[in-house]
């Protein structure tokens, strides 16, 4: 059983799905790029994804995000 994503992680994941980079995500959410990287790493760990693209794919399959 996978750990659930936090609401913030779901937000970040949906922005990854839009193809945004860490800088853009940080700007949109008003957080540091470092924090975005932390969220992305956490998302990839929780979804057992090797890449950002894989994380988005898993997120869509699990119904966490809509595109």
From the structure above, extract its key features.
mainly alpha, single chain, 0% strand, 67 residues, globular
Description:
- The chain is an all-alpha fold and 67 residues long.
- 64% of the residues lie in helices and 0% in strands.
- Helix 1 (7-17) packs across helix 3 and helix 1 packs across helix 4 (52-61).
- The protein is globular and about 25 Å long.
- The relative contact order is 0.21.
- The model has no long low-confidence stretch (mean pLDDT 95).
Largest sheet: none
Distance between the termini: 24 Å
Q: How large is the share of residues in beta strands?
A: under 5%
- The percentage helix is 55-70%
- Secondary structure category: mainly alpha
Radius of gyration: 11 Å
Total beta-strand segments: 0
User: Helix segment count?
Assistant: 4
Assembly category: single chain
Q: What is the string of helix and strand elements?
A: HHHH
Mean pLDDT: 95
Shape: globular
Q: Unreliable segments (pLDDT under 50, ≥5 consecutive)?
A: none
């Amino acid at each position: 059983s996978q750990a659930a994503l936090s609401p913030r992680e779901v937000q970040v994941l949906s922005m990854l799905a839009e193809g945004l980079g860490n800088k853009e995500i940080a700007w949109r959410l008003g957080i540091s790029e470092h924090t975005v990287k932390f969220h992305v790493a956490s998302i990839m760990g929780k979804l057992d994804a090797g890449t950002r693209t894989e994380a988005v794919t898993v997120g869509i399959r699990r119904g966490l995000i809509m595109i």
